[in-house]
Amino acid sequence: MSEIATDADVETWTFRGYEMVVGLEVHVELATRTKLFSASPNRFGDEPNTNIDPVTLGLPGALPVLNRQAVELAMRLGLALDCKVQRSTFARKNYFYPDMPKAYQISQYDEPICIDGWLDLPGSIRVGIERAHLEEDTGKSTHVGGTGGRIHGSDFSLIDFNRAGVPLVEIVSRPDIRTPDQAKAYVSELRAILVAVGASDAKMEEGSMRVDANVSVRLPGAEFGTRCEIKNVNSVRSVGRAIEYEAQRQVGMLEAGESIRQETRHWDETDGRTHTLRSKEDADDYRYFQEPDLVVVDPDPEWIERVRWSLPVLPAARRARLAAATGQPADAEAILVVTDRDQDTYVVAVAEAGGDAGRALVHVKEAFAEQGERPTVPAADLAKLTRLEVDGKLTATQAKQVLAEIVATGGGDAEAIAAAKGFEAMDTSELESMVDAAIAAQPEAWAKFCAGEGKAMGALVGAVMKASKGQADGKAVTALLEQRRAT
Amino acid sequence: MSDEFPTSAADIAWNVRNNITSAADVLERHLAAIDEREGDIHAFNLVLADEARTRAVEIDEAVSVGRDPGPLAGVPIALKDNMCTRGIPTTCSSKILDGWRPPYDATVVTKLREAGAIVIGKTNLDEFAMGSSTENSAFGPTRNPHDTTRVPGGSSGGSAAAVAAGFAAVSLGSDTGGSIRQPAALCGVVGVKPTYGAVSRYGLVAFASSLDQIGPFAHDVADAALVLEAISGHDEMDSTSIRQAPLDITRQLEMGVAGLRVGRITDLPEGASPDVAARLDEAFDTLRDAGAEIVDVKVPAFGYGLTAYYLIAPAEASSNLARYDGVRFGHRIEAPDTNAMYMATRTDGFGAEVKRRIMLGTYALSAGYYDAYYGRALKVRRRIAADFATAYERADVLLTPASPTVAFHLGDKTSDPMSMYLCDTYTIPSNLTGDPAMSVPFGTGDDGLPVGVQVLAPALEESRMFRTAAELERRAPR
Predict the structure, then answer these.
(1) Confidence at residue A263, expressed as pLDDT on a 0 to 100 scale
(2) How far is CA B217 from each of CA A47, A217, B160, B203, rounded to the nearest angstrom?
(3) Which of A204, A450, B301, B407 has the fewest CB neighbours in a 10 Å radius?
(4) A289:B374 CB<8 A
């Protein structure tokens, strides 16, 4: 279950007059059967060094052959982000590291497969997508001995090449993000899209989705400041914390009259700070040049259109559909949660089966967290329950109890369950007399309530609830009280 | 060897397939030749006598039960030691691959086996195919069978010498800037660099990936065609492999050159010695006598090939050779930390010429220098291709020398890299364009040493190139 950014305050963030400018680089592992350039399985969690072959290990004479499924998944996510899919090439990024078998990474460089898209954050801004390009992952090093798990000072290192050659797409946003909440919303929404189109399982905790944040600060309207790149941000929550910390750090430096050094910084989850990893001057010269072992990737328009038409309905459109069905705003928390659980279609199905969409949304959000995309409760059963509610045959409280039973048994007739529980719809006259009794019993509370003290209402409602043994509908009681006051 | 005993690959295969000669007999004669002269020549890094004998028995058994082992049945073939052979050391004549045994066969090796050939050994080369004399080998130089005080050329010197000395009926080399054609010329054998992508590079240890191509050495043009047909064709494992059927050459070999337009490049860079230049002139006369039309063409950018090549090839090599880091296989010098281990391993494992090219290439790709060096070289490369395309509008094939001189003495050029690089002046442009080219022996030059004429053709026009070479072979001065 991912976190979802639902804070209302997504519009502004300033710190001592400065605003933050953030762009995100998100790496995702593609959900292909095999690696980007070889036939070894792309599988997480296997015995170390079992999913390997001459290409993965960069053995002399081995040559890469591009995985068509990886290209197609990159196209899917690019088209889902409204990118243009274009003729693209691969380059070699040259640097030495023990878990980089060829001592170069094959990556798209100046001609990426997807460019110029965007991502709309729910109820918020549009973030531009500069590019999304294909590249291969490295192996994984474990440094034993020494401090901090770094290679420097360790006794020895173990390398697992299972991950080497796993296909990645790097999605680079434009520097359009201005608040931590926007950054969190961007990551959540991107994740939802990746999962929806089947491009990746996008699990940050397993490393199949990794976020780097480019952060700078400036006075509003000024030129962009010098940016720092933050690495090791491993959860949606950390994304917000890390850029918040980093922006404040930069403002502090500027206020102290210091200048920002362009550098790569490491987010430390435990101390909640970023630390210098390497400065720009120490950066490698990667000596990029076009990969001579691969040919140009130029998907023909027919292929692109085929992929475009095969895309599923995306989360934003699904939320809009749910919003239209329920009459709630598309960025309402219940809509975000239910859509993220892929239960939006179910709610719509309940409505189509004659149920009340608004009540169905609430019930699904509250009671279906353990259920998957296809809840066990038949849509018709939930529809019937919501009808009883809106027709005033069951109070909200009663409905909740009926629902609990329906969920526990995987379905059932709400009317029969309600009858078995002895729930009877309280008719209005019965409820009215209970309300009048409560007013008569607590004249002080009534006086306060009439004087406009909202808190006083609680005592009156509570009395009615007690008298009805919890079966009264709270909303109806409130409405009656207000009606009495107004007359 | 007796006069009746087959020596050409075509004759060997015909005799073996028809149960006239046994593969075992053929093999023993070649092993005997190795025993006799390998000590003087050093063509091989490794002779695979036991493996070859086992294989010969298999082939003879197949024939005896009526199965056809294939078009190269029983043909002993030598492989340049930069082609991967499963479980058998593959050294690139470098210390850095010490102890490494590939877990897989190169595609050409698989294809040769399927065609019935017998791998007799792995041949010496300039380290990682960088050189023109086979003197840059960690295991010592190969010598020219025609005169053991001279070099066999390079970098595929071992493969050229193995055929010239009768150690193998045919062999495979790799050609990045002339590494098949120049040693073929110096050793008096046929050597072919096919169209880029015609033969799979899977399992060929890369020097410069956009230029490398595998091709055959043979006693004659027909044998070269036979081997090339067996190893060419599309391979799923090599993305740059051309999607087409194996080359079809042999059937057209006897068609002659009547009506063929043979181009003489009038602005060819100078540098060929008089004896070589004279043989080239004779070659044109010979083809005219055989019915070809000789036409003058210009390839203005030809001379820039060498410069472009010495930026592009080292640039790719600097990246291709970065994987020899001591981490996963081969040579390693232990050191206190990873960077020190890299440095110690590569300092000790690579020879001087390899280091020179890694440094050249690293520099050419560096930030701030890319445009001036590598980027510019790529433009020159495109210009050369355009010039050749224009020349091929007027000519069907072109003739040049394969090597500017006959075989030179060991040590003559080792102290002056530039003079060594000039050996490849005439062969480099075909690698830059990807077009096929081959060297065919055509008489002798100074000191009675062999001279090779180079025939060049447009991409995938191998059959036209071979027809021309076959005509030159038939009419070569004796």
Answers:
(1) 94
(2) 46, 66, 6, 19
(3) A450
(4) yes
Q: Which domains are assigned to chain B?
A: 9-252 (3.90.1300.10), 254-301+386-474 (3.90.1300.10), 307-371 (no CATH)
Q: A428-486 maps to which CATH number? A: 1.10.10
pLDDT of residue B123: 98
What interface predicted TM-score (ipTM) does this complex get? 0.96
Q: Where are the domains of chain A?
A: 14-309, 315-420, 428-486
Q: Is B379's Cβ below 8 Å from some Cβ in A?
A: no
Shortest alpha-carbon distance between residue A74 and chain B (Å): 20
Instruction: Report CB contact under 8 Å: A61, B374.
Output: no
CB A201 within 8 A of CB A195: yes
Q: How would you classify the pairing of strands A104-107 and A263-268?
A: unpaired
pLDDT for residue B1? 40
| Contact assignment for B239 to A65 by CB distance below 8 Å | yes
Task: Sort out which chain A residues have CB atoms less than 8 A from B337's CB and list them.
Answer: 152
Picking from B108, B127, B211, B319 by the largest number of A CB atoms within 10 A of its own CB, the best residue to mutate is B319
**Which residues of chain B make contact with A287, given a CB cutoff of 8 A?**
318-319, 362, 365-367, 370
Radius of gyration, alpha carbons of chain A: 28
Name the strands in the sheet holding B261-265, side by side, starting at the edge strand that comes first in the sequence. B44-47, B118-123, B76-80, B170-175, B213-218, B190-193, B437-444, B450-456, B397-401, B261-265, B293-297
Is residue B80 flagged as an active site residue?
yes
How far is Cα B317 from Cα B209, in angstroms, rounded to an integer?
8
Where residue B180 falls among pLDDT bands split at 50, 70, 90?
very high
How far is A104 from chain B, CA to nearest CA, in Å? Answer: 7
pTM of the entire predicted model: 0.90
User: What is the structure's pLDDT at A393?
Assistant: 83
